[in-house]
Amino acid sequence: MTEPLLQMTGITKAFGGVPALADGNLSIGAGEVHSIVGQNGAGKSTLIKILTGVYRRDGGTVRWQGREVDLRSPREAQAAGIATIYQELTLVPQRTVIENIVLGYEPKTRFGMIDWKTAEARTRAVLGRFGIDIDPHRPLGSYPTAIQQLVAIGRAASMKAKLLIMDEPTSSLDEREVGVLFGVIRALKAQGTSVLYISHFLDEIFEVCDGVTTLRDGRTVGAARVADLTKLDLIALMLGRSAEDIRRAGMTELAGSARAEGGETVLEAEGLTTGRRLRHLDLTLRAGEIVGLAGLLGSGRTEAARALFGMDRPTGGALRMGGKPVSVSNPRAAIAAGLAFLTEDRKTEGIIPDLSVRENLTLALLPRLSRMGVVDEARERTVVEGFIKAIGIKAAHMDQPIRELSGGNQQKVLLGRWLAIEPRLLILDEPTRGVDVGAKREIQAIIRQRVEQGCAVLLISSEFEELIEGAHDIVVMQDGRSTTRLSNPGVSEDQLIHAMAAGGAA
Amino acid sequence: MTRLDPRLAGLLVALAVLLALNVAITPNFLNMQTLAVNASQVATIAIVALGMTLVIASGGIDLSVGSVMAVAGALAPMIFLSAWAVANPGLGLVASIVLPLLAAAACGLFNGLLIAHLGVQPIIATLIFFISGRGIAQVLTNGQLQTFTNPDFTWLGTGRILGLPVQGWIALVLTVVIALVVRRTIYGRYLLSVGGNERASVLAGAPVARVKIATYVIAATLAGLAGLIVVAQNSASDAARIGQLMELDAIAAAVVGGAALSGGRAPIFGTLLGAIFIQLMGYTLIANGISDEMTLIVTAAIIAIAVWLQRGRRV
């Protein structure tokens, strides 16, 4: 038996004493399309970054083409034949396709000038091989992202890469473009080039990959041929459950069972669509009720929230509030309609780092705190003081810049920002991610209290416990569609996992 | 806002040191005339720099201020020298102040619309008026120097109130007003939040486009006012020279005053102090017989130091 192209064994890596990888193993054969799957924090990206020379491993061995290697930088990895196609393109959009393909490897004439004839021939050969029909003299940036991505792949292939790493290559592609990309991957494979294909979308893995390695909590827990797996098997492996348990739990369907009567309907989405990532959302949210939104990464949970909050324009479906059709064209309109959205990314979509706790907390409330454009600071201080006490924000004083607070306290300020406007519907996207256990419990208690006062809550969470304990109903999403609605009490973790994986189990 | 910003305190100390140095070495420094000369010279820079500080706080930059000064400065004499204004001196005077300011505001509106609605980068959007504005001003005046005698209008640049030049008072009052606007109004709060984190501001419901447009309108209007003052001061309007290099002086004052080019901070009093500091530094050198050329180098060094001090403040 010949040795695989790549063999990583027993890789370990810790950051500041915290292990990110405890036992990473990865084996990829020549001409194989392989994937790595795992939940957030399973160690996927750490393992890949070790392979591409971005990080140095603490322990373990890497064998590449039958020899033990130590790739100390991305440049060394590239020289060895490991090329990475990043999500953000690293080519030069202003220059032509030809220039991009030969960038850094320009063929030279006898006089040391660039040999454009050879360059063009090489470019046409690369494009032809993948069936990309474009004018190579036009600037790369004049083509859609998908084409740019394909050119990047073509470039890597023309540089004699043995292994191409594609990190979420379909995140900005539409369906047709995904088809073209898969064609290219198959062409690469036919030429004997291996591909490491990273994607949150399990369907894509089943469509294009030969083998898959599963990581969980920093360890490789399985490596198998895709043909030998069902989607349910794979999900069970990722989550550390037995597929049989999940399958059995799924038999006892609870959906549709009687549940306590909720309050009046606050918001209703029917077949809401915004694009490839959100294809069909049915959702009913009632006052005094927490609806959980469950699903694997990439199932369209965040996109659902973005659509409700007016951040993405709907292309189909209906949205009703209080029984009347509404169109929420931007977050400002959403806020005016009584919606609030605590986003997942606290740093880029939440805090204004230089502003104080007070100014951050009242940002959404400002219009109601001002008269004739002047902020009523006395009232503002009273409001902020109330929230600091009520939700236990630990800050030196309310004029302290928010950037000096801990993550949990920043999150509480942001929660306060939304509670202050007394929303009719509060959308929470991973509200307790990255906050310590104490703050997490406090945040959950605050949310529960608001719900008792009649607020409707849409809770997006990857934590089953949070969903099962917290939500009255759980809507499960899959591939951009809401597929199942489970009613509490009585939802079990296995049942939830089954619903998340249902498509694959069928 | 009870605590004094440590950097503002630093600037105050530097200014005090410079004053003490002047009292010690510069002949006739403690003299009303010295104060008046410096105040009248610094006022226009300070007024433009106030607007620039707002623009920088929003995360932008405005290169067009000097050209906008030229447009306003070219318009004013055309209006009060017109036959209609000569027949109606009172109305004519008002019109010769109000109309140029409106024209300046329109320039700001153009900048703001390009930036907020078309997504043009501020440096590019304002470059358009930086280039074309001065051209427009010269076309308006046929490229000729307009000289005039109009004591009512020239009072803006030559009058005194309590011994201090009128434009000095204007700069002081505007500083206080704008500081209050930044601190007390919803616009000021949104300005800092948009400059500090635009995405988060959008999500919190801030009217980002309106805030940006308003900011460029304010900056351009202030530049227009500075243009009027320069014309009044000289009793002449030279479209080719009014406000030349003003954008750089204004940026320098804002930066020395503690504005961060990444946005989110609007140290209004710092800007005034920054303008005064640069002015006084120049005066000190010239009054002590150091050449103009040397003064430029020293000024540049001060800006470099200010930027260096700013380094590493942001996490």
Number of domains of chain B: 1
Give the neighbour order of strands across the main sheet of chain B: 1-4
- Overall number of strands of chain B: 4
Radius of gyration of chain A: 26 Å
Fraction of residues in β-strands of chain B: under 5%
Helix content of chain B: over 70%
CATH class of the largest domain in chain A: Alpha Beta
Instruction: Provide the succession of SSEs of chain B.
Output: HHHHHHEHEEHHHHEHHH
Greatest interface (CB-CB under 8 A), with counts per chain: A-B, 32 and 25 residues
What is the SS-derived class of chain B?
mainly alpha
Blueprint (SSEs and pairs):
The complex is a heterodimer of chains A (506) and B (315).
Chain A: E1 6-15, E2 18-28, E3 33-37, H1 44-51, E4 59-64, E5 67-68, H2 74-80, E6 82-85, H3 97-102, H4 116-129, H5 145-158, E7 163-167, H6 175-190, E8 194-198, H7 202-208, E9 211-216, E10 219-225, H8 231-239, H9 243-251, E11 265-273, E12 281-286, E13 290-294, H10 301-308, E14 316-321, E15 324-325, H11 331-336, E16 339-342, H12 346-349, H13 357-361, H14 366-369, E17 370-371, E18 374-375, H15 377-390, H16 407-419, E19 425-429, H17 437-452, E20 456-460, H18 464-470, E21 473-478, E22 481-487, H19 493-505
Parallel strand pairs in A: 3-8, 3-9, 6-7, 7-8, 13-20, 13-21, 16-19, 19-20
Antiparallel strand pairs in A: 1-2, 1-4, 4-5, 9-10, 11-12, 11-14, 14-15, 17-18, 21-22
Chain B: H1 6-25, H2 32-57, H3 65-80, H4 83-87, H5 89-117, H6 122-140, E1 146-147, H7 151-158, E2 160-161, E3 164-165, H8 166-184, H9 186-196, H10 198-203, H11 208-234, E4 236-237, H12 246-256, H13 268-287, H14 292-310
Helix pairs in contact in B: 1-13, 2-8, 2-11, 2-12, 2-13, 3-5, 3-6, 3-11, 5-6, 5-11, 7-11, 8-9, 9-11, 12-13, 13-14
